[in-house]
């Protein structure tokens, strides 16, 4: 019996690469995001390899989130693997000049959105006493960097929530994993810098992690035997030592 995974943020970057990786293994996919045309394109591509269903909702909207997940057809209702990946940074400013809308977006999407999705899915996992939740945190959840204030705060929250999930879901045999990457070359910086050309330089002068690198680690985590839980992964590209030391050729 093939497993079913729900991936948030499947329209781009790490989420999309994870969808492609899971499809290779025949995992049935529920792909989520706000950009329907992208969901359609990915569904079309991956339907050759596995069963794919798409859900279009904004994780900030708790009603839309629970309605979307409740609307799943019977063949996709049982979710074995939840990949809480949807998220972004908005802006990179010192705390005294930060933008309130950016702060709201990061807390509402990265923290509250992850909770809304989890709340809609965890009860079926506790009922069945099985499941695997993978939360995409960040190295920013381990170490704060200058001008990272609220984004780092949101990812510290993701890490704390992940640990809380692992404690509370332990009696139910549910695996909970945090994957914490450093710099990954995706649309992340385009979103963060809102189209400012500064985004083009973020991944120049070194080889950043690629979305596929993260997807492979996620696939490794979900394919361990029943008694093994990969609790927490911190991964950097070779050029990055921590959140402030990056060996660039520029
Ligand atoms: P991308 O910008 O490439 O992808 C972000 C994804 O999140 C998109 O699919 C987007 O879909 C979805 N998303 C964003 N906001 C919402 C929302 N309100 N509702 C629903 N979906 C939403 O970035 P990455 O792939 O890099 O980021 C994925 C995760 O990885 C994030 O949690 C990020 O914080 C984390 N991360 C990224 C790193 C990096 O350097 N790139 C490093 C460490 C962690 P759509 O717009 O269609 O809704
Ligand atoms: C994304 C990586 O360094 O931009 O979490 O915070 S970083």
Architecture overview:
This protein has 250 residues and is α/β, with parallel strands linked by helices. The chain has a single domain, classed as Rossmann fold (3-Layer(aba) Sandwich), CATH 3.40.50. Helix content is 42%, strand content 16%. It has nine helices and nine strands. The protein has a seven-stranded parallel sheet, sandwiched between helices. The protein has a two-stranded parallel sheet with strand order 7-8. Helix 1 (13-24) crosses helix 9, helix 3 (62-70) runs parallel beside helix 5 and helix 5 (100-128) runs parallel beside helix 6. It is globular. The model has no long low-confidence stretch (mean pLDDT 98). Bound molecules: NADPH dihydro-nicotinamide-adenine-dinucleotide phosphate (NDP) and 2-hydroxyethylsulfonic acid (8X3). 2-hydroxyethylsulfonic acid binds at residues 138, 140, 148, 182-183, 243.
């Amino acid at each position: 019996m093939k497993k079913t995974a729900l991936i948030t943020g499947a329209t781009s970057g790490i989420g999309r690469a994870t969808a492609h990786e899971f499809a290779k293994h025949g995992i049935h996919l529920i792909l989520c995001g706000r950009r329907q045309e992208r969901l359609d394109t990915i569904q079309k591509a991956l339907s050759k390899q596995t069963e794919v269903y798409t859900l279009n909702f904004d994780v900030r909207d708790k009603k839309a989130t629970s309605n979307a997940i409740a609307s799943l057809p019977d063949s996709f209702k049982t979710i074995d693997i939840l990949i809480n990946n949807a998220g972004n940074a908005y802006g990179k400013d010192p705390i005294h000049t930060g933008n309130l809308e950016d702060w709201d977006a990061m807390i509402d999407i990265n923290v509250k959105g992850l909770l809304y999705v989890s709340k809609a899915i965890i009860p079926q996992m506790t009922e069945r006493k099985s499941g695997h939740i993978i939360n995409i945190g960040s190295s920013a959840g381990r170490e704060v960097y200058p001008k990272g204030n609220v984004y780092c705060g949101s990812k510290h929250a993701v890490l704390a929530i992940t640990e809380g999930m692992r404690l509370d879901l332990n009696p139910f045999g549910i695996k909970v994993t945090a994957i914490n990457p450093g710099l990954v070359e995706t649309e992340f910086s385009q979103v963060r810098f809102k189209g400012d050309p500064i985004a083009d330089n973020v991944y120049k002068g070194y080889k950043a992690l690629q979305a596929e690198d993260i997807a492979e680690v996620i696939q490794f985590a979900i394919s361990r035997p029943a008694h093994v839980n990969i609790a927490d992964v911190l991964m950097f590209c070779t050029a990055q030592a921590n959140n402030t030391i990056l060996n660039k050729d520029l």
